[in-house]
Amino acid sequence: MAITIVGAGLGGLALARVLRMNGIDAVVYEKEPSRDARGQGGMLDLHAETGQRAMREAGLFDEFHAIARPEGQDLRLLEPDGTLLLQEDTPEDAPLDRPEVDRADLRNLLLDSLPEDAVRWGHAFEHADIGLLHFTDGSTAPYDLLVGADGADSRVRALLTDARPAHTGQNAIELGIPDIDRTHPDLAAMVGRGNYWVLGDGKSLSAQRNGDGRVRIYLSFYNTAEDWFATSGIPCDDPAAARARLIDLLADWDPRFTALIAACDDTVVPRSITTLPVGLTWPSTTGVTLLGDAAHLMPPVGQGANMALLDGALLGLALAAHPDDFPAAVKEYEREMFERTSVAGRLSARIQEILTSPDASQKMLAFFQPG
Ligand SMILES: Cc1cc2nc3c(=O)[nH]c(=O)nc-3n(C[C@H](O)[C@H](O)[C@H](O)COP(=O)(O)OP(=O)(O)OC[C@H]3O[C@@H](n4cnc5c(N)ncnc54)[C@H](O)[C@@H]3O)c2cc1C
User: Which residues are listed for FAD binding in this entry (predicted)?
Assistant: First the structure.
């Protein structure tokens, strides 16, 4: 029985790894030509009960600990006028509740735990007939179970549901300061070891130190239209002019924050944030299922990768428990996944609502310090 996974992201690789640990081979088809073809983005915090549990099921918990950064849990929350509302520094002996890990390191850990030929690079899924996958280069592959782990813009999803991601009103721009300790020690001290958030009216800045000394910065604009990048006057293909325009858009913010933008290199990546409806389900269908963002794309507030990893691990365990009955395994997996991820989706939507609100910083403070 051939298990075929489309997408070598965190979820697809966690599934392949757990299957392998249970003596079941699966092939992962990935559209990128190699593991380094595309930057993997910044840091992720893996939660004890979801992402870390998946690493435990994958037999990679110690290896995960070796690459995790507990101090990355540090948090500073500020108002646009520079007022510090909250500072949480992680003590040396703190439990590893939500340690940060570099996404590329985590993906490499999963990739290295699989045999070389488990991932077939340069295979972009196009469509499926019953039992046969078709790739954009004209090649094909047989399958008994097809798992769509192909992320936010999943093509496999259409085999199960008509639902499509919709724009959330958030448009974000990613920037970054390389080697910040050496190039801008004052800004390095300001950002600290972990997360640095400034929440304003309809705008936010989040900066985060990465394992390689880079500080990755996201500037988000809320309640904006889907075509906002075309009308915002931010020339993303002209980094210096884009930085100048972004500084203009934050003219009423404390100059320390605009100094962060001025110090950035020429990385300018626009991201339009979309989500699937919270609680999306589909009738269980023989031979096809989804995991990760393909199944439940959420706002980027800390749940998506954790859910994708756990989806992969739990689907792997369900298939190992029912090796002769894939439909039963898929039903069991989907029942749990729908329930768990709709809870995570509702929590993410609540945080997104806070970020979007006029008094976002005070509401976020109350979220972190309830009562
Ligand atoms: C800016 C940002 C910050 C985030 N921060 C966090 C965070 O701090 N914590 C957290 O938990 N989550 C975070 N997320 C969400 C998280 O990144 C995703 O939920 C997670 O990566 C989903 O994993 P996945 O395996 O489902 O999909 P992906 O990681 O997107 O992997 C999908 C894979 O499928 C491949 N693929 C796509 N189409 C095809 C095709 N047709 N054929 C073959 N292969 C294909 C892609 O190339 C990719 O390798 C963030 C997201 C964003 C955008």
Answer: 45, 103, 293
Hey, whose CA ends up nearest to atom 21 of ligand 1?
A: 305
Provide the 10 A C-beta neighbour count for residue 360.
22
Count of domains forming the chain: 2
- 139 backbone dihedrals φ, ψ, rounded to 5°: -75, 165
DSSP string, 307-344: HHHHHHHHHHHHHHH-TT-HHHHHHHHHHHHHHHHHHH
Q: Are residues 12 and 122 in the same domain?
A: yes
The rounded Cα 347 to chain-centroid distance in angstroms is: 15
CA of 9 to the centre of ligand 1 (A): 6
Q: What pTM does this model have?
A: 0.96
Residue 46 CB–ligand 1 contact under 6 Å: no
Determine how many CB atoms are found less than 10 A away from the CB of residue 249.
18
- Give the count of beta carbons closer than 10 Å to the beta carbon of residue 236: 14
Whether 18 and 317 have beta carbons less than 8 Å apart is answered as yes
Contact criterion met (CB below 8 Å) for 160 and 19? no
For the segment 161-216, what is each residue's pLDDT rounded down to a tens digit? 999 999 999 999 999 999 999 999 999 999 999 999 999 989 999 999 998 899 99
Expressed as residue numbers, the domain containing 191 is 166-274
Residues 225 and 324 in one domain: no
Is 129 annotated as a binding-site member?
Answer: no
CB atoms within 10 A of CB 191: 20
> What integer pLDDT is reported at residue 37 of this predicted model?
83
Joined together, the tokens standing for residue 58 give 């994958």
**Number of continuous H segments (helices) and E segments (strands) in the chain:** 13, 17
7 Cβ below 6 A of ligand 1? yes
